[in-house]
């Protein structure tokens, strides 16, 4: 399975069940919260109009609208994620980052938090994001490095998936559409109390399957979040 397979994405985000299991794992982690790094990069430019693509349950969109007093528009391919985002009082629509239905220069800032590795045509998506940003506008795009949860893949005997947009190759793609690209790496660890807790995380991932063997004590798995800040 590939992370940019539309069928995989539909299954992954058909509802919030898998997300809930992953959130539980994040809550027990160690290190800086990469979501705060994303928010700080957005807040830095004091945007008045923000587009978030792949909004998920709408937590970041709600935070941006509330704390930044910005007009936020969110899109997601999952009808359920759009429903959950609207319930937070945020304008949200079913949509595709590869074909954004907005006029050029409509937004001061665009946000793509852990979503671009799901896009089949990455270059087309980045071109669309650049198009809807005003001159000097900013894209904040978060992703993961190639070694994301390597320890779990090793435990279940699976190879790490290849991704089209990760910490290592993301800047190259972004530089084709943006004049300046900066990369911020965040160093974090998942800490699973036991094999059962790790198994719950494995089961929440469509692209990761297998049985976590019994082990003594907690299981640590590296997280490799990366935040790209791209200015037009």
Features:
alpha/beta, globular, 232 residues, 10 strands, 9 helices, three-stranded antiparallel beta sheet, seven-stranded mixed beta sheet
Assign the structural class, choosing from mainly alpha, mainly beta, alpha/beta, alpha+beta, or little secondary structure.
alpha/beta
β content, as a range? Answer: 25-35%
Number of helices: 9
The spatial strand order of the largest sheet comes to 4-3-2-5-6-10-7
Query: How much helicity do the residues have?
Result: 25-40%
Q: Kindly report how far apart the N and C termini lie.
A: 33 Å
Mean pLDDT: 92
Question: Using only CA atoms, what is the Rg?
Answer: 17 Å
Count of strand segments: 10
SSE string, helices as H and strands as E: HHEHEHEHEEHEHHEEHEE
Categorize the overall geometry.
Answer: globular
In short:
The protein has helices at 6-12, 17-27, 34-43, 59-68, 79-86, 122-132, 150-156, 170-174, 195-203; strands at 30-31, 49-53, 71-76, 91-94, 107-113, 133-144, 180-185, 188-192, 219-223, 225-231. By secondary structure, the chain is an alpha/beta fold.
């Amino acid at each position: 399975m590939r992370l940019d397979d539309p069928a995989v994405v539909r299954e992954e985000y058909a509802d919030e069940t898998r997300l809930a299991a992953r959130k539980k794992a994040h809550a027990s982690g160690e290190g800086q919260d990469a979501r705060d790094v994303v928010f700080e990069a957005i807040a830095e430019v004091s945007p008045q109009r923000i587009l978030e693509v792949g909004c998920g349950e709408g937590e970041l969109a709600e935070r941006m609208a509330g704390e930044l007093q910005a007009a936020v528009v969110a899109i997601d391919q999952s009808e359920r994620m759009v429903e959950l985002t609207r319930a937070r009082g945020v304008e949200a629509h079913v949509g595709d980052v590869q074909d954004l239905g907005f006029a050029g220069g409509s937004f001061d800032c665009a946000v793509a938090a852990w979503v671009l590795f799901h896009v089949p045509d990455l270059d087309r998506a980045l071109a669309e994001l650049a198009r809807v940003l005003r001159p000097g506008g900013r894209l904040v795009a978060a992703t993961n490095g190639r070694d994301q949860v390597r320890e779990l893949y090793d435990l279940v005997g699976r190879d790490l998936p290849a991704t089209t947009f990760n910490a290592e190759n993301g800047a190259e793609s972004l530089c084709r559409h943006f004049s300046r690209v900066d990369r911020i790496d965040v160093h974090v660890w998942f800490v699973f109390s036991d094999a059962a807790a790790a198994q719950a995380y494995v089961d929440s991932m469509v692209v990761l399957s297998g049985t976590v063997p019994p082990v003594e004590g907690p299981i640590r798995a590296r997280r490799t979040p990366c935040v790209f800040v791209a200015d037009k």
